[in-house]
Amino acid sequence: MALFTGKGDDGTTYFFGSKERFAKDTPLAEALGTCDELGSLLGYLKARGRTSKRRTDLEDAEAIEGVQQNLFIIQAELAGADKRITEEKVRDMERVINNIEKKLPPIKTFFIPGANEISALYDLARTVARQAERRVVHLGAKHLSAHSLAYMNRLSSLLYAKARYHAQKGGKVEKKPHYR
Asked: Which domains, ranges and CATH numbers included, belong to the chain?
């Protein structure tokens, strides 16, 4: 399979396995593209974790791969495939978030991102996850099941929890904004 066909030179693309073409600037293309951006950013976090010798970083890398796999399910669903995120996957993510949250001080304010490098990368991934969620929500519920929408919503919470966890693990104090 060639990496390029030239068929998209007119500003159109198609869904994998479909012959129907659509404009690359449609809300659906934006949603799919932003999910792809998020998956790539998570890939960087995963690769970074795999180069570490720390068990928690290796566990993070494994968990991130699971999220990437689920993002592919969401993209397939967006494209019209008969794929869906299950309620179990949403509940599993909620358990992970709750377990991380138990290790952290309660949230009483916003925090300025960038406590350390890994925390900043998780915050960046969180913002891309929120952007992907906004793009998906813009399409409406007809494109994604309730569990897939819930998964997209929880994903940014997971990434925020990971950012806070890695800041604390790195011995960094989260800084709140001054508002002055």
From this structure: 25-169 (1.20.1200.10)
